[in-house]
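Incident review: delayed structure delivery

Summary: a single-chain prediction request sat in the queue longer than the usual turnaround. Root cause was a stuck worker, restarted by the on-call engineer. No data loss occurred. The affected request and its eventual output are reproduced below so the record is complete for anyone auditing the incident later.

Affected input:
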Amino acid sequence: MPRNKVNYAKLLEGVQNVIKRGDYHKFLSMINKIKNDYSFRNTMLVYVQNPNATIVKGFCDWNKLGRGIKKNPKTIFIYIPIKYKKQKAIEGQQNVNGKEEKARKDSTIEIIEGISYKRVAVYDIGDTYIKKGSKRIPILDDKLENNTTEELYHALIDLSPVPVITQEIHGIKKGHYDKTNKRIVLKESLSQDDKTAVLIHELCHCLYDDFVYKTERNKSEIFVESVAFLVADYFGFDTSLCSFGYITNWAENNIKEFMKLSNKIKETADEFIELIKNSQRGQEKISA
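Output delivered after worker restart:
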C-alpha cells in the first residue's frame, strides 16, 4: 500500500481512538492552544502523537523566535502541502481514426500542476529553550478578555443578523434558531454564561449551518457543536454546555464522513472568531 494511504489509515484510526475515549472536547481545545494555522487533520496528528502539546512549531520557526530544540525531543510529524509543476512532452496526437500520429519537430509541452504532501517535524514549546542572548518574544494571540461573558453576549447580539429574544421555554430545551420567523430564542431563566453559550450555538446554525436538517441532523449538530465549542473555548469561558455524547456512535461508524466535516469545522470557527474580534465591541475590548 502506498505510504500516503498508510498514513491516512493511521490518521483515521487515531481519530476513532480519540472519539472512543471521549477525548473529542480535549482535542478541540488543542486547536486553540497550538497557535498555528494548522488544518484539522494536522492538529489531530499533533494530538494523537502528543496530547499535552500546547504551542507547536517547526525548527526554523522556533529559531526565528530565539528558541532552540532540546536534546531528545518528542518529535511530532505533520504533513504540509507543496505545489508542483511538471513538464510533460506530448509525443503524438490521435487522429479521428484513433491512430497515433507522429509528433512534429516542435513537440508540444504540457504543464501539469498539482499538490503533493511532505512529512515535516514539529516540536512543542516544552521541548525548546531560550537561546543565550535572545529576548523572550510573546507568541500568544490577543483575545477578547472577559471577566464575565456579558461583553461577549452583547457583542454576539450586535452582530446577529436576526433578532435575539428571551422567553420562558418549558422542558430541557435551552434555545433554538427559528428559521421560519428569522429569530433566535433563548430560555429566559438561563444564567448569563449559559445564555452566551446557547447564543453561540444558535448563531452557528443561523450564520454557517448549510446542512439539510431533516436528512443531515447528525452532521449539522456535530458541525455546530464543534464550532460553538471552539469559539467559547477561544474566549475562555465554560464550555460544559457543549455536549458530544451523541457524536460517538455516529462518528465511529462514519469516520470518513466525519473527516469530511473536519476542515469545515475549523475554518468556520476561525471565521466566527474573527467576526467577533472585528465587531465594534470586540475592537473596544482588545484595544482597551
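Verification: The CA atoms of residues 92 and 104 lie 8 Å apart.
Action items: add queue-age alerting; document worker restart procedure.
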